[in-house]
Amino acid sequence: MTWFERFQPLLILLSVALGLGLSLIEGTAAIADRWILPLLAVMLYAAFLSISLRHFGSAFNDYRVTVASLAINFLWTPLLTWGLGALFFPDAPDLRVGLLMLLVTPCTDWYLVFTGIAKGNVGLATALLPLNFVLQMGLPPVYLAVFAQSLVGLNLWVLGARVVTVLSVPLALVSQVLLRLRTRTSP
């Protein structure tokens, strides 16, 4: 286990505390929206660097597990979330959208921890990680269009452009790092 993996829960708690502390400073909210997108891109860049694509192909060897995982994460969960939101927050569209956004983006690395705790196939879970990660970043605009467009005013073009930006910049940087590493190790 790497240093980062060992201290990730503590780092997350410290980040939350820092965010809450900064929110108490007057004027922070006015500039916070300018920092969210670049900081999210940096976070994704770090996450992309840690994902190993070595076993990616093996995820498709057991297609039943792959299909079941994708169906549960990206079909069943959004439908269940929409139903729970309609049931518990019928008059609070903002809470329904917040619940939807929280539950339709499955955490990419924590499920590996839970798979290990359950004595599941961590290798297969790791192989599914890149596919899950890309889908969880790309599908929220689709979910918002399908489930939340009638609840709140959304500009899906702006949202889609931001998702593309947040995904493409870190992916481009990671691909450059990987290309440089490959050229250094090539004979």
UniProtKB/TrEMBL annotation:
Keywords: Cell membrane, Membrane, Transmembrane, Transmembrane helix, Transport. The keyword Transmembrane applies. The chain crosses the membrane at residues 35-53, 65-89, 95-114, 121-139, 159-179. Pfam families: SBF. GO terms for molecular function: antimonite transmembrane transporter activity; antiporter activity; arsenite transmembrane transporter activity. It is a multi-pass membrane protein. This is Arsenic resistance protein. It is found in: Cell membrane. GO terms for cellular component: plasma membrane. Its main location: membrane. InterPro entries: Arsenical-R_Acr3, BilAc:Na_symport/Acr3, Na+/solute_symporter_sf. Belongs to the arsenical resistance-3 (ACR3) (TC 2.A.59) family. PANTHER family: ARSENICAL-RESISTANCE PROTEIN 3, ARSENITE EFFLUX TRANSPORTER.
